[in-house]
Amino acid sequence: MLPKTEIPNTPVHTTPPPLIQVNGTHVEMGRQIGEACRQQVQHSIANAHVLIDSAYDQLELTWEGAQIQSRKYLPFAEERYPQYADEMRGIAEGANVAFDEVVTLNVMEAVTTDALHLTRCTSFAVNEQRTADGHVLAAHNEDWIPEDEDDVYVVSAKPQDEPPFLAMTYGGLLPNVGFNAFGIAQLIDSVYPSDSRIGIPRLVVARAVLAARRVSSAIGRAWVHHRAAGYNHMLIHESGELYSIEVSALRSEILHGTDGYLVHTNHYLAPTMKEVESDPEELISSRVRYFRANRLLRQSQTHSIKSLQAIQKDHVNFSNSICNHAVEWTDPLDREKTINAMVIDLTAREMHICWGNPCQNAYHTYHLDA
After folding, report:
1. SS3 category, 26
2. Pairing of β 152-159 and β 19-24
3. Mean pLDDT calculated for residue range 292-319
4. Neighbours of 353 (CB within 10 A)
């Protein structure tokens, strides 16, 4: 590990990420998030605006154009999952911003045709066979633009008609990386399919998965028809079942953690999914992180929260390492860093989350009170 003094652009946070507690209908929950996180929502919109403008030479897209493009995806979301469109409306109302701008945040990957290879997340999990205390653990490093790091917060939600959940998000994005009261956790890794189309936005699909009551239902929601593209949805169940659901717009595949370990980064692993991977040469660092995390995970027969946190701090292949650092800020579309890292103890219904790079920031514990 490099000394802290040798890593530039790595903020130290002296407080935990804000915890926002919401309940009620979906529009009410969105409004409560928007009101409580008005500054974060407005800041993330401003950041997205600057990002689009700074990348005009590559994208030939303005912020106004991005909003126009994002409207094409909204009818698909409203038809299949109107409740999550309502959450976006509530966020916009509560934060006093335009609804179109919140929609644009939530379809940013789509309207930029995946030119933002910013999301270089690392996810891994171990079941009760591989932990010292018999708990089921899942870990995720969230990588995104440095400017949005200040906008991170945790949502503890009690929807009127869906399972309670605890999830991380930032700015005006729908929450989806977390776990629910039915013992299902979801970690998200961006992947880059060549068959993307206009359809249900990926973040809306992921938000729906977080509301599932059974593993089969979670998988089915990831496979929903008319999706715009896809993520890798790492699904972890309290029983110890571990799945990676690799999804594109038209294809999907299930990977199973049969030996109690599971790792995923930002490239497809299933042969059928590799056939639709766009620009695999752009994802070399994803492969390095995958092999590194896989090796570190399998070096131990008995893991703990601390051992998973140690993997999250790893700097092999710095700066595009598991603990990712924005050392050189050059290409506006390629300036990602780890803005938070979490370890979920699904058995204990706890989230241990670090705000910023885990090599320099402390973890804080949040509980799901269902």
Report:
1. helix
2. parallel
3. 97
4. 26
Q: Tell me the domains of the chain and their CATH numbers.
A: 114-367 (3.60.60.10)
Question: Any residues with CB less than 8 A from the CB of 305 and at least 6 apart, and which?
Answer: 137, 343, 345, 352
Please, what is the angle between helix 38-54 and helix 63-71, to 10°? 110
Angstrom distance (rounded) from CA 186 to CA 223: 14
pTM, two decimal places: 0.96
The more confident residue out of 58 and 368 is 368
Phi/psi for 207 (5° steps) reads: -60, -40
- Going 296 to 301 to 307 to 312, the CA torsion angle's sign is positive
pLDDT band at 335 (very low <50, low <70, confident <90, very high): confident
What are 244-250's contacts with CB under 8 Å, separation 24+? Answer: 244/269, 245/219, 246/191, 246/270, 246/273, 247/191, 247/205, 247/222, 247/223, 248/191, 248/193, 248/194, 248/195, 248/196, 248/273, 248/276, 249/193, 249/195, 249/196, 249/197, 249/199, 250/195, 250/276
Record the tokens describing residue 305, joined without a space.
């929260």
Q: What is the pLDDT of residue 313?
A: 98
Six token digits for residue 368 = 């799901």
DSSP-derived letter for residue 134 is: S
Ramachandran angles phi, psi of 277, nearest 5° = -80, 130
Query: Burial letters for 161-175: b for 16+ Cβ neighbours within 10 Å, e otherwise?
Result: ebbbbbbbbbbbbbb
Q: Which residue has the higher pLDDT, 139 or 285?
A: 139
pLDDT band at 215 (very low <50, low <70, confident <90, very high): very high
Segment (H or E) for 167: strand 165-170
Residues 309 and 1: beta-carbon distance below 8 Å: no
Asked if residues 8 and 352 have their Cβ atoms less than 8 Å apart, the reply is no
Give the model's pLDDT for residue 282: 80
